Amino acid sequence: MNEVFEELRAALYSVWHRKWLALAVAWGVCLLGWLVVALIPNSYEAKARIYVDVDDVLSEQLGIAGDGREEIMRVRQTLASAVNLEKVIKSTKLGEDITERSQMDAAIAALTEKVTVTSQEDNLFEITATVGKGSLSDAENAVLARDVVQKLIDIFREEHIAGSRVEVKDAIAELDDQLEERKAELEAAEERRLAFEAEYPDLIGGSATLSTKIQQARTELRGIDADLAAAQSALAAINGQLAGTPRSIAGNAETGGARGALAQAQASLARLRGRGLKEGHPDIIATRRQVQLLTQQVASEGPNSISGTPNPAYTSLVAIRAERQAGVEALQARRAALQSDIAALMGSQAAEPAIAAEANRISRDYDVLRKNYENLLQNREQIRTRGNVQDKSIQFKFNLTDPPIVPQSPAAPNRPLLLFGVLIVGLGAGAGAAYAIGQLRSTFATSQKLERSMELPVIGSISLTMSDAAKALERKRVKQFAGGIAGLAGIFVILLAIEIVTVGSVA
Protein backbone atom coordinates (compact mmCIF):
# COMPACT_ATOMS: atom_id res chain seq x y z
CA MET A 1 0.00 0.00 0.00
CA ASN A 2 2.92 2.41 0.79
CA GLU A 3 4.30 1.77 -2.66
CA VAL A 4 0.97 2.75 -4.22
CA PHE A 5 0.85 6.01 -2.30
CA GLU A 6 4.46 6.61 -3.22
CA GLU A 7 3.74 6.15 -6.91
CA LEU A 8 0.71 8.40 -6.68
CA ARG A 9 2.72 11.10 -4.92
CA ALA A 10 5.47 10.82 -7.54
CA ALA A 11 2.92 11.14 -10.34
CA LEU A 12 1.31 14.21 -8.78
CA TYR A 13 4.74 15.78 -8.32
CA SER A 14 5.64 15.07 -11.95
CA VAL A 15 2.41 16.67 -13.17
CA TRP A 16 2.75 19.65 -10.85
CA HIS A 17 6.36 20.12 -11.85
CA ARG A 18 5.19 20.46 -15.46
CA LYS A 19 1.92 22.22 -14.74
CA TRP A 20 2.36 24.80 -17.49
CA LEU A 21 2.63 22.05 -20.08
CA ALA A 22 -0.47 20.43 -18.64
CA LEU A 23 -2.33 23.74 -18.71
CA ALA A 24 -1.33 24.41 -22.30
CA VAL A 25 -2.40 20.97 -23.44
CA ALA A 26 -5.69 21.30 -21.54
CA TRP A 27 -6.41 24.65 -23.17
CA GLY A 28 -5.62 23.31 -26.61
CA VAL A 29 -7.73 20.17 -26.24
CA CYS A 30 -10.65 22.06 -24.70
CA LEU A 31 -10.68 24.81 -27.30
CA LEU A 32 -10.49 22.30 -30.13
CA GLY A 33 -13.12 20.04 -28.58
CA TRP A 34 -15.49 22.91 -27.85
CA LEU A 35 -15.12 24.08 -31.43
CA VAL A 36 -16.03 20.63 -32.69
CA VAL A 37 -19.03 20.50 -30.34
CA ALA A 38 -20.15 23.91 -31.54
CA LEU A 39 -20.02 22.74 -35.16
CA ILE A 40 -22.29 19.76 -34.50
CA PRO A 41 -25.75 20.71 -35.83
CA ASN A 42 -28.73 20.36 -33.56
CA SER A 43 -31.19 17.57 -34.28
CA TYR A 44 -34.86 18.08 -33.46
CA GLU A 45 -37.31 15.29 -32.79
CA ALA A 46 -41.02 15.42 -33.54
CA LYS A 47 -43.54 12.77 -32.52
CA ALA A 48 -47.12 11.85 -33.33
CA ARG A 49 -49.39 9.00 -32.35
CA ILE A 50 -52.13 7.42 -34.44
CA TYR A 51 -54.79 4.90 -33.47
CA VAL A 52 -55.82 2.21 -35.95
CA ASP A 53 -59.48 1.37 -35.47
CA VAL A 54 -59.92 -2.21 -36.68
CA ASP A 55 -63.31 -2.76 -35.03
CA ASP A 56 -65.74 -1.85 -37.80
CA VAL A 57 -69.26 -2.70 -36.69
CA LEU A 58 -70.70 -2.55 -40.20
CA SER A 59 -68.07 -4.93 -41.56
CA GLU A 60 -68.69 -7.33 -38.71
CA GLN A 61 -72.42 -7.33 -39.40
CA LEU A 62 -71.79 -8.04 -43.05
CA GLY A 63 -69.43 -10.85 -42.15
CA ILE A 64 -66.40 -9.41 -43.98
CA ALA A 65 -64.42 -8.11 -41.02
CA GLY A 66 -61.00 -9.62 -40.30
CA ASP A 67 -59.03 -9.84 -37.07
CA GLY A 68 -57.23 -6.49 -37.65
CA ARG A 69 -53.79 -7.97 -38.20
CA GLU A 70 -53.83 -7.11 -41.89
CA GLU A 71 -54.50 -3.43 -41.18
CA ILE A 72 -51.87 -3.32 -38.42
CA MET A 73 -49.21 -4.90 -40.62
CA ARG A 74 -50.11 -2.44 -43.35
CA VAL A 75 -49.54 0.49 -40.99
CA ARG A 76 -46.12 -0.77 -40.00
CA GLN A 77 -45.02 -1.43 -43.56
CA THR A 78 -46.48 1.68 -45.16
CA LEU A 79 -45.57 4.51 -42.82
CA ALA A 80 -41.78 4.27 -43.13
CA SER A 81 -41.52 2.77 -46.62
CA ALA A 82 -38.88 4.06 -49.01
CA VAL A 83 -41.54 5.33 -51.42
CA ASN A 84 -43.18 7.44 -48.73
CA LEU A 85 -39.82 8.74 -47.44
CA GLU A 86 -38.93 9.86 -50.97
CA LYS A 87 -42.20 11.79 -51.17
CA VAL A 88 -41.42 13.37 -47.79
CA ILE A 89 -37.96 14.45 -48.95
CA LYS A 90 -39.29 15.95 -52.17
CA SER A 91 -42.06 17.86 -50.41
CA THR A 92 -39.89 19.32 -47.59
CA LYS A 93 -36.64 21.23 -47.29
CA LEU A 94 -34.74 17.97 -47.09
CA GLY A 95 -34.81 17.77 -50.89
CA GLU A 96 -33.74 21.33 -51.70
CA ASP A 97 -30.13 20.45 -52.57
CA ILE A 98 -30.80 17.04 -54.14
CA THR A 99 -30.33 16.91 -57.91
CA GLU A 100 -29.17 13.35 -58.59
CA ARG A 101 -30.62 9.95 -57.91
CA SER A 102 -27.64 8.88 -55.84
CA GLN A 103 -28.19 11.86 -53.57
CA MET A 104 -31.84 10.93 -53.20
CA ASP A 105 -30.94 7.33 -52.33
CA ALA A 106 -28.49 8.54 -49.72
CA ALA A 107 -31.08 10.92 -48.27
CA ILE A 108 -33.66 8.12 -48.11
CA ALA A 109 -31.18 5.85 -46.35
CA ALA A 110 -30.33 8.58 -43.85
CA LEU A 111 -33.98 9.42 -43.20
CA THR A 112 -34.82 5.74 -42.78
CA GLU A 113 -32.51 5.61 -39.77
CA LYS A 114 -34.08 8.76 -38.33
CA VAL A 115 -37.74 7.79 -38.77
CA THR A 116 -39.12 5.09 -36.51
CA VAL A 117 -42.58 3.59 -36.13
CA THR A 118 -43.11 1.84 -32.81
CA SER A 119 -46.18 -0.06 -31.64
CA GLN A 120 -47.10 1.02 -28.13
CA GLU A 121 -50.18 -1.21 -28.09
CA ASP A 122 -51.90 -3.45 -30.61
CA ASN A 123 -53.66 -0.53 -32.31
CA LEU A 124 -51.62 2.50 -31.18
CA PHE A 125 -48.50 3.60 -33.10
CA GLU A 126 -45.95 6.34 -32.46
CA ILE A 127 -44.13 8.02 -35.33
CA THR A 128 -40.81 9.67 -34.46
CA ALA A 129 -38.65 11.73 -36.83
CA THR A 130 -35.27 13.23 -35.93
CA VAL A 131 -34.04 15.96 -38.30
CA GLY A 132 -30.85 18.02 -38.22
CA LYS A 133 -29.80 19.67 -41.46
CA GLY A 134 -26.65 21.72 -41.15
CA SER A 135 -27.66 24.29 -43.77
CA LEU A 136 -30.76 25.27 -41.79
CA SER A 137 -31.15 27.20 -38.58
CA ASP A 138 -32.32 25.60 -35.37
CA ALA A 139 -35.80 27.06 -35.76
CA GLU A 140 -36.04 25.74 -39.33
CA ASN A 141 -34.85 22.29 -38.27
CA ALA A 142 -37.47 22.20 -35.53
CA VAL A 143 -40.21 23.06 -38.02
CA LEU A 144 -38.74 20.59 -40.50
CA ALA A 145 -38.98 17.76 -37.96
CA ARG A 146 -42.67 18.55 -37.43
CA ASP A 147 -43.23 18.75 -41.21
CA VAL A 148 -41.63 15.33 -41.80
CA VAL A 149 -43.97 13.62 -39.33
CA GLN A 150 -47.02 15.51 -40.61
CA LYS A 151 -46.17 14.66 -44.21
CA LEU A 152 -45.84 10.98 -43.33
CA ILE A 153 -49.31 11.02 -41.78
CA ASP A 154 -50.78 12.91 -44.74
CA ILE A 155 -49.25 10.52 -47.27
CA PHE A 156 -50.43 7.51 -45.32
CA ARG A 157 -53.96 8.86 -45.02
CA GLU A 158 -54.16 9.69 -48.73
CA GLU A 159 -52.72 6.36 -49.80
CA HIS A 160 -54.97 4.45 -47.47
CA ILE A 161 -58.12 6.08 -48.86
CA ALA A 162 -57.07 6.10 -52.50
CA GLY A 163 -55.03 2.92 -52.26
CA SER A 164 -57.88 0.93 -50.78
CA ARG A 165 -60.18 2.04 -53.59
CA VAL A 166 -57.59 1.23 -56.24
CA GLU A 167 -56.90 -2.15 -54.69
CA VAL A 168 -60.60 -2.99 -54.56
CA LYS A 169 -61.10 -1.83 -58.15
CA ASP A 170 -58.10 -3.81 -59.41
CA ALA A 171 -59.16 -6.89 -57.48
CA ILE A 172 -62.68 -6.73 -58.89
CA ALA A 173 -61.34 -6.26 -62.42
CA GLU A 174 -59.03 -9.23 -62.01
CA LEU A 175 -61.84 -11.36 -60.65
CA ASP A 176 -64.09 -10.29 -63.54
CA ASP A 177 -61.46 -11.49 -66.03
CA GLN A 178 -61.09 -14.79 -64.22
CA LEU A 179 -64.87 -15.18 -64.03
CA GLU A 180 -65.18 -14.73 -67.79
CA GLU A 181 -62.54 -17.39 -68.36
CA ARG A 182 -64.14 -19.78 -65.88
CA LYS A 183 -67.56 -19.09 -67.36
CA ALA A 184 -66.41 -20.07 -70.84
CA GLU A 185 -64.73 -23.22 -69.51
CA LEU A 186 -67.84 -24.08 -67.46
CA GLU A 187 -70.15 -23.65 -70.46
CA ALA A 188 -67.92 -25.89 -72.57
CA ALA A 189 -67.82 -28.52 -69.82
CA GLU A 190 -71.58 -28.35 -69.43
CA GLU A 191 -72.07 -28.87 -73.16
CA ARG A 192 -69.79 -31.93 -73.06
CA ARG A 193 -71.66 -33.30 -70.06
CA LEU A 194 -75.10 -32.82 -71.66
CA ALA A 195 -73.97 -34.43 -74.90
CA PHE A 196 -72.52 -37.40 -73.04
CA GLU A 197 -75.61 -37.82 -70.86
CA ALA A 198 -77.83 -37.75 -73.93
CA GLU A 199 -75.83 -40.64 -75.43
CA TYR A 200 -75.34 -42.58 -72.20
CA PRO A 201 -78.21 -41.76 -69.83
CA ASP A 202 -77.28 -44.60 -67.47
CA LEU A 203 -73.89 -42.98 -66.82
CA ILE A 204 -75.21 -39.58 -65.80
CA GLY A 205 -72.92 -38.34 -63.06
CA GLY A 206 -70.11 -40.81 -63.81
CA SER A 207 -69.36 -44.32 -62.60
CA ALA A 208 -69.56 -43.17 -59.01
CA THR A 209 -73.18 -42.18 -59.62
CA LEU A 210 -73.71 -45.48 -61.45
CA SER A 211 -72.39 -47.40 -58.44
CA THR A 212 -74.61 -45.33 -56.19
CA LYS A 213 -77.62 -46.17 -58.34
CA ILE A 214 -76.76 -49.88 -58.19
CA GLN A 215 -76.35 -49.69 -54.44
CA GLN A 216 -79.64 -47.85 -54.06
CA ALA A 217 -81.41 -50.37 -56.29
CA ARG A 218 -79.99 -53.26 -54.29
CA THR A 219 -81.06 -51.65 -51.05
CA GLU A 220 -84.55 -51.13 -52.44
CA LEU A 221 -84.58 -54.71 -53.72
CA ARG A 222 -83.72 -56.03 -50.27
CA GLY A 223 -86.60 -54.00 -48.85
CA ILE A 224 -88.99 -55.34 -51.49
CA ASP A 225 -87.84 -58.92 -50.81
CA ALA A 226 -88.62 -58.42 -47.16
CA ASP A 227 -92.01 -56.89 -47.98
CA LEU A 228 -92.72 -59.69 -50.47
CA ALA A 229 -91.90 -62.38 -47.92
CA ALA A 230 -94.20 -60.73 -45.41
CA ALA A 231 -96.97 -60.37 -48.02
CA GLN A 232 -96.65 -64.02 -49.08
CA SER A 233 -96.73 -65.14 -45.47
CA ALA A 234 -99.87 -63.10 -44.88
CA LEU A 235 -101.44 -64.53 -48.06
CA ALA A 236 -100.65 -68.08 -46.91
CA ALA A 237 -102.22 -67.34 -43.55
CA ILE A 238 -105.43 -66.00 -45.10
CA ASN A 239 -105.60 -69.01 -47.46
CA GLY A 240 -105.40 -71.27 -44.44
CA GLN A 241 -108.20 -69.40 -42.74
CA LEU A 242 -110.27 -69.45 -45.94
CA ALA A 243 -109.88 -73.22 -46.34
CA GLY A 244 -111.37 -73.81 -42.90
CA THR A 245 -114.30 -71.44 -43.34
CA PRO A 246 -117.58 -72.67 -45.00
CA ARG A 247 -118.72 -70.75 -48.02
CA SER A 248 -122.37 -70.54 -47.06
CA ILE A 249 -124.82 -71.25 -44.35
CA ALA A 250 -127.89 -73.38 -45.14
CA GLY A 251 -130.72 -71.05 -46.15
CA ASN A 252 -132.39 -69.49 -49.23
CA ALA A 253 -130.93 -70.73 -52.48
CA GLU A 254 -131.21 -67.32 -54.09
CA THR A 255 -129.14 -65.55 -51.52
CA GLY A 256 -126.79 -68.26 -50.30
CA GLY A 257 -123.40 -69.50 -51.46
CA ALA A 258 -121.15 -67.82 -54.00
CA ARG A 259 -124.09 -66.30 -55.80
CA GLY A 260 -125.16 -64.41 -52.68
CA ALA A 261 -121.59 -63.21 -52.09
CA LEU A 262 -121.37 -62.13 -55.74
CA ALA A 263 -124.60 -60.20 -55.40
CA GLN A 264 -123.30 -58.43 -52.29
CA ALA A 265 -120.00 -57.64 -53.96
CA GLN A 266 -121.76 -56.24 -57.02
CA ALA A 267 -123.98 -54.14 -54.74
CA SER A 268 -120.92 -52.85 -52.92
CA LEU A 269 -119.26 -51.98 -56.22
CA ALA A 270 -122.37 -50.10 -57.30
CA ARG A 271 -122.46 -48.18 -54.05
CA LEU A 272 -118.81 -47.18 -54.41
CA ARG A 273 -119.37 -45.96 -57.95
CA GLY A 274 -122.46 -44.15 -56.75
CA ARG A 275 -120.27 -42.23 -54.31
CA GLY A 276 -118.34 -40.90 -57.27
CA LEU A 277 -115.13 -42.87 -56.78
CA LYS A 278 -112.93 -43.29 -59.85
CA GLU A 279 -112.07 -46.64 -61.34
CA GLY A 280 -108.46 -46.25 -60.14
CA HIS A 281 -109.47 -45.89 -56.50
CA PRO A 282 -108.05 -48.71 -54.29
CA ASP A 283 -111.53 -49.61 -52.95
CA ILE A 284 -112.97 -49.85 -56.50
CA ILE A 285 -110.02 -51.98 -57.60
CA ALA A 286 -110.32 -54.33 -54.59
CA THR A 287 -114.12 -54.69 -54.97
CA ARG A 288 -113.88 -55.25 -58.70
CA ARG A 289 -111.22 -57.91 -58.07
CA GLN A 290 -113.56 -59.52 -55.55
CA VAL A 291 -116.42 -59.50 -58.08
CA GLN A 292 -114.19 -61.21 -60.64
CA LEU A 293 -113.12 -63.92 -58.22
CA LEU A 294 -116.71 -64.56 -57.10
CA THR A 295 -117.85 -64.62 -60.70
CA GLN A 296 -115.26 -67.30 -61.46
CA GLN A 297 -116.31 -69.21 -58.35
CA VAL A 298 -120.02 -69.10 -59.31
CA ALA A 299 -119.12 -70.27 -62.79
CA SER A 300 -117.09 -73.15 -61.38
CA GLU A 301 -119.93 -74.27 -59.05
CA GLY A 302 -122.39 -74.61 -61.88
CA PRO A 303 -126.17 -74.40 -61.72
CA ASN A 304 -126.45 -77.35 -59.34
CA SER A 305 -124.25 -75.88 -56.55
CA ILE A 306 -125.33 -76.04 -52.99
CA SER A 307 -127.34 -73.02 -52.04
CA GLY A 308 -127.68 -71.31 -48.78
CA THR A 309 -127.09 -68.08 -46.94
CA PRO A 310 -123.60 -66.59 -47.72
CA ASN A 311 -121.14 -66.87 -44.88
CA PRO A 312 -120.06 -63.27 -44.03
CA ALA A 313 -116.77 -64.48 -42.61
CA TYR A 314 -115.98 -66.37 -45.79
CA THR A 315 -116.87 -63.39 -47.92
CA SER A 316 -114.62 -61.10 -45.85
CA LEU A 317 -111.76 -63.57 -46.06
CA VAL A 318 -112.16 -63.79 -49.82
CA ALA A 319 -111.93 -60.00 -50.11
CA ILE A 320 -108.87 -59.90 -47.89
CA ARG A 321 -107.25 -62.68 -49.91
CA ALA A 322 -107.87 -60.78 -53.12
CA GLU A 323 -106.31 -57.65 -51.71
CA ARG A 324 -103.29 -59.49 -50.43
CA GLN A 325 -102.93 -61.40 -53.68
CA ALA A 326 -102.88 -58.07 -55.54
CA GLY A 327 -100.21 -56.74 -53.16
CA VAL A 328 -98.02 -59.83 -53.68
CA GLU A 329 -98.33 -59.48 -57.47
CA ALA A 330 -97.42 -55.78 -57.30
CA LEU A 331 -94.32 -56.53 -55.17
CA GLN A 332 -93.29 -59.30 -57.53
CA ALA A 333 -93.62 -56.96 -60.49
CA ARG A 334 -91.56 -54.27 -58.71
CA ARG A 335 -88.96 -56.87 -57.77
CA ALA A 336 -88.64 -58.04 -61.36
CA ALA A 337 -88.28 -54.41 -62.56
CA LEU A 338 -85.53 -53.70 -60.02
CA GLN A 339 -83.67 -56.86 -60.96
CA SER A 340 -83.83 -55.81 -64.58
CA ASP A 341 -82.54 -52.30 -63.73
CA ILE A 342 -79.67 -53.70 -61.65
CA ALA A 343 -78.69 -56.06 -64.42
CA ALA A 344 -78.73 -53.21 -66.93
CA LEU A 345 -76.68 -50.93 -64.70
CA MET A 346 -74.12 -53.62 -63.95
CA GLY A 347 -73.93 -54.42 -67.62
CA SER A 348 -73.23 -50.78 -68.41
CA GLN A 349 -70.59 -50.62 -65.70
CA ALA A 350 -68.82 -53.80 -66.78
CA ALA A 351 -69.21 -53.58 -70.55
CA GLU A 352 -67.94 -50.00 -71.08
CA PRO A 353 -65.08 -49.23 -68.64
CA ALA A 354 -63.62 -46.61 -70.97
CA ILE A 355 -66.97 -44.86 -71.23
CA ALA A 356 -67.36 -45.00 -67.44
CA ALA A 357 -63.92 -43.46 -67.03
CA GLU A 358 -64.88 -40.74 -69.51
CA ALA A 359 -68.07 -40.15 -67.52
CA ASN A 360 -66.01 -39.79 -64.36
CA ARG A 361 -63.67 -37.30 -66.00
CA ILE A 362 -66.47 -35.19 -67.46
CA SER A 363 -68.38 -35.15 -64.18
CA ARG A 364 -65.28 -34.35 -62.16
CA ASP A 365 -64.19 -31.53 -64.47
CA TYR A 366 -67.64 -30.03 -64.45
CA ASP A 367 -67.90 -30.14 -60.64
CA VAL A 368 -64.46 -28.55 -60.18
CA LEU A 369 -65.14 -25.78 -62.68
CA ARG A 370 -68.55 -25.06 -61.18
CA LYS A 371 -67.12 -24.91 -57.66
CA ASN A 372 -64.28 -22.59 -58.74
CA TYR A 373 -66.71 -20.34 -60.57
CA GLU A 374 -69.00 -20.09 -57.53
CA ASN A 375 -66.03 -19.32 -55.25
CA LEU A 376 -64.77 -16.58 -57.55
CA LEU A 377 -68.25 -15.11 -57.77
CA GLN A 378 -68.58 -15.09 -53.99
CA ASN A 379 -65.13 -13.51 -53.56
CA ARG A 380 -65.98 -10.75 -56.03
CA GLU A 381 -69.18 -9.88 -54.18
CA GLN A 382 -67.36 -9.86 -50.84
CA ILE A 383 -64.64 -7.55 -52.17
CA ARG A 384 -67.23 -5.24 -53.73
CA THR A 385 -69.14 -5.10 -50.44
CA ARG A 386 -65.93 -4.50 -48.50
CA GLY A 387 -65.00 -1.65 -50.81
CA ASN A 388 -68.40 -0.01 -50.35
CA VAL A 389 -68.13 -0.36 -46.58
CA GLN A 390 -64.63 1.09 -46.53
CA ASP A 391 -65.71 4.07 -48.62
CA LYS A 392 -68.41 4.86 -46.06
CA SER A 393 -66.46 4.14 -42.88
CA ILE A 394 -62.90 5.07 -43.90
CA GLN A 395 -62.86 8.20 -41.74
CA PHE A 396 -63.18 6.03 -38.64
CA LYS A 397 -60.31 3.74 -39.52
CA PHE A 398 -57.43 5.96 -38.39
CA ASN A 399 -57.50 8.55 -35.65
CA LEU A 400 -54.66 11.00 -34.96
CA THR A 401 -54.50 10.99 -31.16
CA ASP A 402 -51.38 13.20 -30.72
CA PRO A 403 -50.63 15.49 -33.68
CA PRO A 404 -46.99 16.49 -34.31
CA ILE A 405 -45.84 19.80 -32.86
CA VAL A 406 -42.70 21.92 -33.33
CA PRO A 407 -40.13 20.75 -30.75
CA GLN A 408 -38.98 23.46 -28.37
CA SER A 409 -35.53 22.01 -27.65
CA PRO A 410 -33.11 19.89 -29.66
CA ALA A 411 -33.09 16.17 -29.08
CA ALA A 412 -29.40 15.85 -29.96
CA PRO A 413 -26.65 16.48 -29.31
CA ASN A 414 -26.59 16.87 -25.54
CA ARG A 415 -24.33 19.86 -25.80
CA PRO A 416 -23.96 20.68 -22.07
CA LEU A 417 -22.83 17.13 -21.43
CA LEU A 418 -20.45 17.25 -24.38
CA LEU A 419 -18.98 20.57 -23.23
CA PHE A 420 -18.41 19.17 -19.77
CA GLY A 421 -16.94 16.02 -21.25
CA VAL A 422 -14.52 18.06 -23.36
CA LEU A 423 -13.43 19.94 -20.23
CA ILE A 424 -12.75 16.68 -18.37
CA VAL A 425 -10.93 15.23 -21.37
CA GLY A 426 -8.83 18.40 -21.73
CA LEU A 427 -7.79 18.39 -18.08
CA GLY A 428 -7.03 14.69 -18.29
CA ALA A 429 -5.05 15.19 -21.49
CA GLY A 430 -2.97 17.93 -19.87
CA ALA A 431 -2.24 15.85 -16.80
CA GLY A 432 -1.47 12.84 -18.98
CA ALA A 433 0.90 14.83 -21.18
CA ALA A 434 2.78 16.20 -18.16
CA TYR A 435 3.05 12.74 -16.62
CA ALA A 436 4.24 11.22 -19.91
CA ILE A 437 6.97 13.81 -20.31
CA GLY A 438 8.07 13.13 -16.75
CA GLN A 439 8.30 9.42 -17.49
CA LEU A 440 10.35 10.04 -20.62
CA ARG A 441 12.90 12.07 -18.71
CA SER A 442 15.09 10.15 -16.25
CA THR A 443 14.21 12.02 -13.09
CA PHE A 444 13.18 10.71 -9.68
CA ALA A 445 10.65 12.52 -7.61
CA THR A 446 11.53 10.67 -4.36
CA SER A 447 14.59 9.01 -2.86
CA GLN A 448 12.73 5.73 -2.49
CA LYS A 449 12.07 5.63 -6.25
CA LEU A 450 15.74 6.30 -6.90
CA GLU A 451 16.71 3.50 -4.53
CA ARG A 452 14.36 1.00 -6.21
CA SER A 453 15.46 2.01 -9.66
CA MET A 454 19.26 1.90 -8.98
CA GLU A 455 19.09 -0.97 -6.45
CA LEU A 456 21.59 0.92 -4.33
CA PRO A 457 21.10 2.38 -0.88
CA VAL A 458 20.43 6.14 -0.77
CA ILE A 459 22.40 7.74 2.04
CA GLY A 460 20.34 10.93 2.14
CA SER A 461 18.52 13.65 0.21
CA ILE A 462 18.86 17.44 0.07
CA SER A 463 15.71 19.52 0.52
CA LEU A 464 14.90 22.39 -1.81
CA THR A 465 15.57 25.72 -0.18
CA MET A 466 14.13 28.82 -1.81
CA SER A 467 14.76 32.48 -1.12
CA ASP A 468 12.01 34.92 -0.36
CA ALA A 469 12.14 36.32 -3.88
CA ALA A 470 11.88 32.81 -5.33
CA LYS A 471 8.97 32.00 -3.03
CA ALA A 472 7.18 35.20 -4.11
CA LEU A 473 7.78 34.32 -7.75
CA GLU A 474 6.46 30.80 -7.12
CA ARG A 475 3.30 32.14 -5.47
CA LYS A 476 2.76 34.45 -8.44
CA ARG A 477 3.12 31.58 -10.86
CA VAL A 478 0.69 29.50 -8.83
CA LYS A 479 -1.84 32.32 -9.02
CA GLN A 480 -1.28 32.56 -12.74
CA PHE A 481 -1.80 28.82 -13.07
CA ALA A 482 -4.96 29.01 -11.00
CA GLY A 483 -6.08 31.88 -13.22
CA GLY A 484 -5.48 29.70 -16.29
CA ILE A 485 -7.60 26.92 -14.79
CA ALA A 486 -10.28 29.44 -13.79
CA GLY A 487 -10.25 30.91 -17.28
CA LEU A 488 -10.80 27.47 -18.72
CA ALA A 489 -13.70 26.92 -16.34
CA GLY A 490 -15.05 30.37 -17.12
CA ILE A 491 -15.09 29.65 -20.83
CA PHE A 492 -16.97 26.44 -20.09
CA VAL A 493 -19.56 28.35 -18.06
CA ILE A 494 -19.92 30.96 -20.81
CA LEU A 495 -20.41 28.29 -23.47
CA LEU A 496 -22.92 26.54 -21.26
CA ALA A 497 -24.86 29.76 -20.74
CA ILE A 498 -24.82 30.47 -24.49
CA GLU A 499 -26.20 26.98 -25.15
CA ILE A 500 -29.01 27.43 -22.65
CA VAL A 501 -29.94 30.83 -24.05
CA THR A 502 -29.78 29.53 -27.65
CA VAL A 503 -32.00 26.55 -26.90
CA GLY A 504 -34.50 28.75 -25.12
CA SER A 505 -34.74 31.09 -28.07
CA VAL A 506 -35.47 28.38 -30.68
CA ALA A 507 -39.19 28.61 -30.17
DSSP, total strands:
6
As laid out across the biggest beta sheet, the strand order is 2-3-1-6
Order of SSEs: HHEHHHHEEHHEHHEHHEHHH
Alpha plus pi helix count: 15
List the helices and strands and how they pair.
Layout: H1 2-17, H2 19-39, E1 44-52, H3 57-62, H4 69-79, H5 82-91, H6 101-114, E2 115-119, E3 124-131, H7 138-199, H8 207-243, E4 248-249, H9 257-274, H10 282-301, E5 309-310, H11 312-351, H12 353-393, E6 398-402, H13 415-440, H14 447-454, H15 468-504
Antiparallel strand pairs: 1-3, 1-6, 2-3, 4-5
Helix pairs in contact: 1-13, 2-13, 2-15, 5-6, 5-7, 7-12, 8-11, 9-10, 10-11, 13-15
Give a verbal description of the structure.
- The protein has helices at 2-17, 19-39, 57-62, 69-79, 82-91, 101-114, 138-199, 207-243, 257-274, 282-301, 312-351, 353-393, 415-440, 447-454, 468-504; strands at 44-52, 115-119, 124-131, 248-249, 309-310, 398-402.
- It is of the alpha+beta class.
- It has three domains: 2-39 and 413-504, no CATH class; 44-175 and 383-402, Bacterial polysaccharide co-polymerase-like (2-Layer Sandwich), CATH 3.30.1890; 207-366, no CATH class.
- The strands form two sheets. It has a four-stranded antiparallel beta sheet.
- A hairpin with a 4-residue loop joins β2 (115-119) and β3 (124-131).
- α2 (19-39) runs antiparallel to α13, α7 (138-199) runs antiparallel to α12 (353-393) and α10 packs across α11 (312-351).
- The two termini are 57 Å apart.
- Residues 56-68, 250-255 and 392-396 have low confidence and may be disordered.
